[in-house]
Amino acid sequence: MTGQTGTAEALTANEVARIKADFEILEHQVNGADIVYLDSGATSQKPRCVYEAEQHYYENANAAVHRGAHTLAVEATDLFEQGRETVAKFIGAKTNELVWTSNATEALNLISYSMSNASLGRGGEAAARFRLGPGDEILTTELEHHANLIPWQELAFRTGATLRYVPIAEDGSLRYDLIVSLVTERTKLVAFTHVSNVLGTITDTRRFVDAARKVGALTVLDGCQSVPHLPVDVKSLDVDFMAFSGHKMLGPTGIGGLYGREELLNAMPPFLTGGSMITVVDMEHAEYLPAPQRFEAGTQRISQVHGLATAASYLDEIGMDRIADWEEHLGELLYQGLSALEGVRVFGPADAKRIGTVPFEVIGVHPHDVGQFLDSRGIAVRVGHHCAQPLHRALGVTATTRASTYLYNTEEDIKALIEAVASVREYFGV
Amino acid sequence: MNELDQLYQQVILDHSKRRIGSPLVEPEGGHRHGESHQHNPICGDQIRVRVELEGEKFTAMSWEGDGCSISMASASVLSEMLPELTREEFLDKLDLFREMMRSKGTMTPDEEVLEDAVAFAGVSKFPARVKCAMLAWVAAEVAMLEAA
């Protein structure tokens, strides 16, 4: 899925200026310069309505949810469950198909640990399709963020299954041609990213889903970089699970989500256990609630859910297809502008569909120094391996500088970055 | 001088390109030697430092690394300083260098003791870069202990 629906009109510069005014922090100065925030791939900034929603919750409705009969508890529970409904709708899921987690990393670990619990026999026959053992295979890709790699490495270690991966070509594009031979009857799970957090390239998810369906393997989509930037509908994507994070889509930190097909979630054994996820408990054992509560042990992140739902409504009102079109435009300006600079190498395939995320290197200057130089001009970018060491190794570098946009970025922001990058080599005497 | 220029003093930019003491050289026979590999997982910078000692005195330091200008320049400056120092003199300088790095720009360093390493005073205003400047020093200390 991409933003090119062809029906929406792209955001105009005036609208982006109005949107930007909703973000207090973007009115600030850094090191004597207007802030140019190009690190939304790491975390997005938040509009006032999001933290005001959190404040509203604490001032008017703070209580523990799903317990207690007093009025505040009812109001808190309402906000919490309305939040679920809003965000579930935002990704095209049914309300009870959205499990709250602390972040996307926890969502992916939830699947990994639930599957190892199933492999130990927990969940009984209903959980049989989540069992892994020697001879079974998990497939991921060389493009992944560590959060969509290490949980599968650990799951393989715990169960004796084998982890395999789809490699990338020299330009960073996925070797789709190898999927057919890598997905076999042994494959039980296929985990892949929707959008590369480093390259910004959009995955052709169909290729993975079709191959996985043919052999009955489960599919796990990392939606961290797609849900904030593209219209995402889990039903048309036809994946079994999708993890995403709140703080990258204008929401608060400390909240993420796991989408799972209803019948799958209800067949999986729990990961974290304790209060709020049970029906009957005696001293020897416990019965568990259906999803999503089954996976929400302990006191929940209520203000964060309310904040995230407010963020999703904010995005929805502007229109995800329009945001996607705007960011595709910014991404194109970034890619072309940086590519045109002498002594700058841009990573990622030239002809790919991408969001507004572009990694690059300034030849002869370490990314850490590039980032420092840009910071002195008020420009915030990310430098390092971006939690994707295998990808960087495949590209033949240890670190890159990454610029990543969001709906509040203007063409002027991109221009400021490109002008600044153009003077990096001179400053460092390269 | 603005803060960026204080961070990237000419001495640092020069050393980051000249990389005195790099690459690694095989230790001379009869000298005690030690080696240490240090890695900064945050940025991926890494360095391998080898030191040689004769009695209490350093005779050589060589290194190989991959990292930002601050970490590479720091290793280069240290390679130039280390030979002829005693273990104790090095540890004194290390203490002072570390104190300077933790001073958040408030300390006027003693040039007599720190020599070219005073150029790193500006780094202390950038807490995210302190590790870069310390990397080679920490590696040299571990290598020295290994040589003991």
Automatic annotation (TrEMBL), chain A:
Keyword flag Transferase: yes
Domain Aminotransferase class V per the UniProt entry, residue ranges: 36-417
The entry's keywords: Pyridoxal phosphate, Transferase
Pfam families, alphabetized: Aminotran_5
Single GO biological process annotation from the record: cysteine metabolic process
Alphabetized GO MF terms: cysteine desulfurase activity; pyridoxal phosphate binding
Reactions listed under catalytic activity: (sulfur carrier)-H + L-cysteine = (sulfur carrier)-SH + L-alanine
Cofactor: pyridoxal 5'-phosphate
Role: Catalyzes the removal of elemental sulfur and selenium atoms from L-cysteine, L-cystine, L-selenocysteine, and L-selenocystine to produce L-alanine.
Family the entry assigns: Belongs to the class-V pyridoxal-phosphate-dependent aminotransferase family. Csd subfamily.
Protein name (Swiss-Prot/TrEMBL): Cysteine desulfurase
From TrEMBL, chain B:
Region Disordered, residue ranges: 19-41
Protein name as annotated: SUF system NifU family Fe-S cluster assembly protein
A Pfam family this chain is assigned to: NifU_N
Coiled-coil segments on the chain, per record: none
Biological processes per GO annotation: iron-sulfur cluster assembly
Source organism (scientific name): Glutamicibacter soli
Composition bias, Basic and acidic residues: 28-38
GO molecular function, a single term: iron ion binding
Ranges for domain NIF system FeS cluster assembly NifU N-terminal: 8-132
